[in-house]
Amino acid sequence: MRSFDRFKLFNFLDYLSLFISFLSLALLWSFLIAVTLDVFSDGLKRLGKDFFFSFPSRRPENAGIFSAWVGTLAVISVAFPFSFLLGVLGGIYLEEYAKRNIITRIIEVNINNLSAVPSIIYGLLAVGLFAQVMRFGESILTAGLTLGVLMLPIIVITTREAIRTVPPYIKEASYSLGSTKWETIKHHVLPYSFPGIITGVIIALSRAIGETAPLITVGALTFISFLPPSPLKPEFPFLSFEWLKSPFTVLPIQMFNWVSRPQKAFHYNAAATGVVLISITFILIIIASIIRYRFRKRVISL
Q: CA–CA separation, 227 vs 59, rounded Å?
């Protein structure tokens, strides 16, 4: 009888935990959906060609995000290759080449801790290192490197986790056929783990696009009515890097500027900017899902 009562108690606790989990998930989704619908209801009325291709203005009906989204693309174009190359290569080294000793463990602990450090700390680091020591100033290059450093821990961690999902027999089969370690990593480990790696990269990129605090710290402008110089020029070598030294603003900072204004019309502009940021995040998630699906399909077919 006691065992039966205990079974009933455990069964009740199972249903209770299931109910609490479902209720928590429902509340979370309700909150997210409510916020998203509120932003879209206020922001969709301002979206249009003029909003995307107009500079900020003191008149809310004439204000746009031209300089903000161009600045966002410019900053991300610096942050992405910097963090992708260093993060993926660092994850490969720590997982495949680094010896298991006290130094490696210290590095791993620090990387895990850095992924949880507030973003403002990265901004303070960038002011001291990139803006002052390296003399890059308050520029797109400084902002891109700042976001790149912010993305690094996430990419390193996800790269290592993706590599760990590779079945051991794949490596063993490669080694048995005479492949070197790098050949095994290049032809077998990376193709198998690439969907997980690219998912981590896009998650880090989504976070970086929405960051405000580190970019304000390194000198992002809240009002800017011009674009950076073009990276292309008519003379040989047809490339110009002057845009890396240009002042900048980004979408989250433009959004913050409009939210701080007392006029209601500026709040609609901020909501429209929020719609753009949410849409970019969804697009990145869809891209990650497509890439993950195609690479997994290719790996399975092999």
A: 20
The architecture (CATH level 2) of 49-301 comes to Orthogonal Bundle (1.10)
Distance CA 141, CA 130 (A): 9
pLDDT at residue 10 in the model: 58
Q: 251-265 burial by CB neighbour count: b if 16+ within 10 A, else e?
A: bbbbbbbbeeeeeee
**Percent helix, strand, coil in the chain (nearest 5)?**
75, 0, 25
Stated pTM of the model: 0.84
**Structure tokens of 99?**
């010896």
The residue-averaged pLDDT of 59-75 equals 88
What CA dihedral angle connects 158, 160, 166 and 167, to 10 degrees? -130
Q: Which amino acid is at 293?
A: Y
pLDDT reported for residue 127: 84
For residue 1, what pLDDT is reported?
Answer: 46
Question: In sequence order, which residues have a C-beta less than 8 Å from that of residue 237 and are 6 or more positions away?
Answer: none
Q: Which amino acid is at 37?
A: L
Residues making up the chain, counted from first to last: 302
Cα angle for residues 70, 73, 78 (degrees, 5° grid): 130
Residues 167-188: what's their mean pLDDT?
86
Give per-residue burial for 102-137: e unless 16+ CB within 10 Å, then b: eeeeeebeebeebbeeebeebbebbbeebbeeeebe
Both tokens of residue 162? Answer: 């993706």
